[in-house]
Amino acid sequence: xxxxxxxxxxxxxxxxxxxxxxxxxxxxxxxxxxxxxxxxxxxxxxxxxxxxxxxxxxxxxxxxxxxxxxxxxxxxxxxxxxxxxxxxxxxxxxxxxxxxxxxxxxxxxxxxxxxxxxxxxxxxxxxxxxxxxxxxxxxxxxxxxxxxxxxxxxxxxxxxxxxxxxxxxxxxxxxxxxxxxxxxxxxxxxxxxxxxxxxxxxxxxxxxxxxxxxxxxxxxxxxxxxxxxxxxxxxxxxxxxxxxxxxxxxxxxxxxxxxxxxxxxxxxxxxxxxxxxxxxxxxxxxxxxxxxxxxxxxxxxxxxxxxxxxxxxxxxxxxxxxxxxxxxxxxxxxxxxxxxxxxxxxxxxxxxxxxxxxxxxxxxxxxxxxxxxxxxxxxxxxxxxxxxxxxxxxxxxxxxxxxxxxxxxxxxxxxxxxxxxxxxxxxxxxxxxxxxxxxxxxxxxxxxxxxxxxxxxxxxxxxxx
Amino acid sequence: xxxxxxxxxxxxxxxxxxxxxxxxxxxxxxxxxxxxxxxxxxxxxxxxxxxxxxxxxxxxxxxxxxxxxxxxxxxxxxxxxxxxxxxxxxxxxxxxxxxxxxxxxxxxxxxxxxxxxxxxxxxxxxxxxxxxxxxxxxxxxxxxxxxxxxxxxxxxxxxxxxxxxxxxxxxxxxxxxxxxxxxxxxxxxxxxxxxxxxxxxxxxxxxxxxxxxxxxxxxxxxxxxxxxxxxxxxxxxxxxxxxxxxxxxxxxxxxxxxxxxxxxxxxxxxxxxxxxxxxxxxxxxx
Lengths: 465, 286
Description:
The complex is a heterodimer. By secondary structure, chain A is an alpha/beta fold. Helix content of chain A is 33%, strand content 16%. Chain A has a five-stranded parallel β-sheet, with helices on both faces. Chain A has a five-stranded parallel β-sheet with strand order 6-14-7-8-9. In chain A, strands 10, 11, 12 and 13 form a four-stranded antiparallel β-sheet that branches. In chain A, helix 2 (32-39) packs across helix 4 and helix 4 packs antiparallel against helix 5. Chain B has ten helices and 15 strands. In chain B, the strands form four sheets. In chain B, strands 10-9-8-11-12-15 form a six-stranded mixed β-sheet, sandwiched between helices. A four-stranded antiparallel β-sheet of chain B has the order 1-2-6-5.
């Protein structure tokens, strides 16, 4: 047994002062030598906790062993048996809370860099693979509609196609990928990679229909007339605003709008692309989650002199991943903590020019277990800004529930599902991902997709609801 | 419904990419674009809109709909060529495929009104009031169509409107056809003359819809306007199209686009529509 190397193989990345001037991906990925060195750190546990820790249950020790032996394509094939999007999850999963969080090596040393290895295998296969596809089972004659082509929808579609079912995936926008395309910036997840992963699902035989808004172009009930089952993976795309004075001034964006303009509509390449965006000099992003970090870092790349995060609690309570906060800090994003906006003030032309804020102190923990911010009376102050991005969360879009009688919804409009089967209150209709959680992670959505695919397959075979 | 039972529908056609069938210039700067989009055509109702992209680099542009033919599976929109993306749309030829033609978006217009209804249109709105007038006529309303333009040569579809209206009134700035006063002046005259108008529906540029709302306000006649804020997705995802109606923030794409003009915060709408004038100028010059 060779001596364990206590620290993980570092991943090279663009230096902060360079990367804030471009939209290229920040980390470079492992070289084959780096990947093999890191893979050799894996203890190959008899009872691997990492598989349990993975929402989609990837055979992690298995693929890492293959990388260690230099069988990179074999590693990718093994991952793809359970995960249709390895190049995506390798980049955006919160591994520190999942597989790496329970890695046995992590008890004494740094855990194995599972996410980086997953990314390496996926990228290697894209560059050197022969595009070979897993075997699909013979056609069953059953048809399934998958609504939404984000992480949940792609996962369901791929799994059902492998099981021999005919799948049609409906996307409301003109590009497939859901939040991977409109929400997550290019520098964290290059869009070419998303396109590659979607293409893989289509090569499995899934038919993609763009520009089709289920709930309007066709209702869910109309889909049920021609499909044997429907999966709703429509995400949580309805932005929340704060409901404070001045919020409709020009220069105030929802994070969804800001990121959609930049990522989906490619406003960062204006005027090559027609969609414009306000390139603010002093940009404030309200919120402390991953979306807020993405928005604040995007603002820097669009030329902001000052990009700040305004967050009502302290740094410890921030919901964003540590790595995202770290990247934002490295790039010069400023943090106005324990601060809550109470009003926006504009100029004579209807453009935002100041945020009026109040300072907070931390009180007792609230329902989320985090200490509640308590406003300090009379602490009001103003921050000069020309652009504001509101990134305080989003809810599921109500379009489908509004046009579907009998589809039960819960708090904030999430579609209610059975947690084991992802069945909704409507026979033949399943749902998963952010539409069922109200906003979570790519990998959780994929975990839902896995469960739903199993349950849909069983329903199609037995007819039992 | 048990698994396996299915009513076969023509989905394959519904899933085809939208394709330009016809394009005809109406008047300077306005083009009528007719697109094959069976899924949209089979569903669309008066008041709803579509979002259109000419090609992969275009903006997503919301357009009200001027006509549709459910049999042909086609939808027609009046394109006002103002910026880069609308110029690209107006340059499309029959057979061209669009990067996006998605709908029907928004809510259908509430046509639940009896008696006389005045529909007022200016610019692209002259086309957009046509299906509204047609639907009202079909349900037995008395319809007065009012249209405006700077000059006679900027008006179109008067004959089509006369087929679905009891009366067509015209106003031009230079008096080349009809009288002066634009739509607001004409509606005031009608109301002053005691015309029993139960509702006014106005579609046109923001300023025209604002003026119409102000014209009818003293008379207390409910006036519905089709708001045209900037949009990205058109499905409630971005919030770019937020408007203030009766003091409440609404998303025009999912709560509208039709609202009570007497409740709309027009100043906000006008300011928000001007947000990208500078970059639009840059883009148009390319």
